[in-house]
Amino acid sequence: MIHSPAERTTRISSALTLEVVARTAALKAEGKPVLSLSVGEPDFDTPPPIREAGKYAIDHGITHYTEGRGTLALRKAISSKIERDQNLSYAPDQIIVSNGGKHVITNFLLAAINPGDEVILPAPYFLAYPELIKLAEGVPVILETEPKNRYLISPEQLQRAITPKTKMIVLVTPNNPSSTTYSKEEIAALAPVILKSNAWVLADEVYEHLLYDGRQQASPAHIPELYERTLYVSSTSKTYAMTGWRLGWGCGPKEIVAAAAKLQSQMTSSPSAIAQHATIEAVSNDQRDREEMRKVFEKRRDLIYSIVSKWPHVEAPKPEGAFYMFPRIDGIWKAAGKPYPGSLKVSMQLLEEKYVATMAGVVFGDDRAIRFSFAASDETIKEACGRIEKYFRDI
Ligand SMILES: Cc1ncc(COP(=O)(O)O)c(C=O)c1O
Does ligand 1 come within 6 angstroms of the Cβ of 373? Predict the structure, then answer.
């Protein structure tokens, strides 16, 4: 008899975001007027100079295996980029290049977590985290947050969650799905609590260049005492509209980076040589395209916030970065004296009845909320929000 899939595959669930994308595509194929506020990727194409660099690689034989942790040329380029943009110093041997930020996160979790180790994860969280922590045989310790606190954790809350088994604390800034950010002061306030533990800090900064209202990126790695325990993660996906190229990097102390590189070399040999070559161009060029895209996102943020913040009984912190809004919506049902059906049902009804694709908050660890992505045109945002508003009014 043929065996069933391994137990580890049953411990984790699949990425529901991709299933919504599939259902949205199916409805579109049926000719339905579907509008999408569900996707977690820029709606821009990769800027031309980066595409040209990719084509150059294909045409000039840059198509072979590379060093497992990424080419030295790319790691040097990333090192200079981080120095330039973040004022952080990482030598090439403190850098691993992987197939996207998600792959860097997976590598770091597998390199750092022993079975039973606790990983503190603030909610709402990027939905891959609990599953990847479980895959690494760690135990996710979820910290609930509130929209009135911009969905951020407090030092007291972190202190209460830390135990002798805490191996890692995940801090995502700007966050997906809340799009809120930790300021320098807010990270500094967490630092003494973190320093009382022995935990790593996984600093997921894949949205570091999508910040609004003149904000500057604040990283745990900026705090000298935290630098040695910070595992900094970023990627080309959101910054350079390169989601499909699958290229990300992780930085930290060289021993843990080397451990992650060892795992990667066995699992994937190396990231794509073509994507690596294109990324040298992306991180080294004048960064004008990046800034143009950021400005467009900021305008869309203003637009969607001006609409959603006026909806009655909805709590929605203003997005400070990334391209999401994460309103708490259960108050609408409460005000109508009706039972809240849960975010999955709401999201499915919006898709099937109003043809608007959103993401249910439950997949991000908050069933009272729903995620809208504003990586969409102004027209789509306006029309989709109009349909959603109508759905809410009819409750
Ligand atoms: C917070 C966060 N981290 C990491 C990722 C992974 O991005 P990628 O693997 O495309 O670099 C995402 C993608 O949505 C994200 O939202």
Answer: no
